[in-house]
Every structure is written in structure tokens, then in C-alpha cells.
Amino acid sequence: MKLAHNVKLSVFAHEGEDTGKISEALKGLCPFDLEKEKVALKTTIATGFKERKITIFEVFLKKERHTTRFLNHLKENLSEGHVNLIRSQAESRLDSELNFFIRLDKAKLLKENKFYLTDSGDCFHIKISLAAYPANREAGLKVVEEWLKQ
User: What pTM does this model have?
Assistant: First the structure.
């Protein structure tokens, strides 16, 4: 069963942070080699508050084999408590376009290599475009439930 049309992973590296370590951690969220799979790591430089430089790293997964492997890897690396939290918050994590949002704590991932949910802005952003038919909230929430119980 196709779970997602695509998945977008992104993270901000603020001036003074180790951009190499952050980009490697983003790549490490995927259970496959991005270069071998010909998946690009996009880097954008932006200017933030008080003219501070921000590096934005993004990975866009659009092939079904990539999205499915990523989603399975994500679920396997979340604690049972976090899986249950996602399940209980599914309604609020889903937007009107059937995009499902998850944030992983940046510090925990960088220091402990742990997938830990957060509401903080200093995080790895995951945006999942759900493959739901018909394209409505109810069908989208069913896709999320199917993914979480696999």
C-alpha cells in the first residue's frame, strides 16, 4: 500500500553550528545512501534575524521505494510512546492538503542519534504528503493509522 506521494525532510543550521554534522544527520534519517539512490541534498543560504546566516538543508523523496523505506525507518526508530503520541495527535498534525507533519528534536538526534518528537522550532522537519483516496481528511487519517500499525 502506497503511504505517501512524497516526503520532504529539512533542517536549519544557524550561524556557528556544525553544518557538516547537521547535513550528515539529515542524510542519516534516510535508511539508504542518497548519492547511490540519486537523491539530492539541497542547500540554501538565507539571512535570519539580526542578519545571521542560516543554512537550510532539504531532502525530497518522491519515489515510492524511498518514501516507504523512510517511513518504516522513522516508525522503527520512534519509541512506542512517541508512536502513540503521533496516533493521538494525528488530527492536528494533518493539514487540509493532506500533508502530515512531524518534528524531531535536533539536539537529541545530533548528540544521541535518537529520534525524539518535539514541538520546538529547533528541529528536523518532516512533511509527508499522504497518498489517500479519496483525498479527504478521513482517508488521510486512515493512511496514518495503517502506517503506525505496520
Answer: 0.96
| Rounded average pLDDT per 10-residue block, the chain, 150 residues | 96 95 97 97 91 95 98 97 98 97 98 95 96 96 95
Of 93, 139, 125, 138, which is closest to residue 11 (Cα–Cα)?
125
Residue ranges of the domains in the chain?
A: 4-149
Instruction: Measure the CA–CA gap between 128 and 144, rounded to whole angstroms.
Output: 10
Contacts of residue 138, defined as CB under 8 A and 6 or more positions apart, other chains included, come to: none
C-alpha to C-alpha distance for 127 and 125, rounded to whole angstroms: 7
Give the CATH class of 4-149.
alpha beta
Residue 130 sits at φ, ψ, to 5 deg, of -70, 140
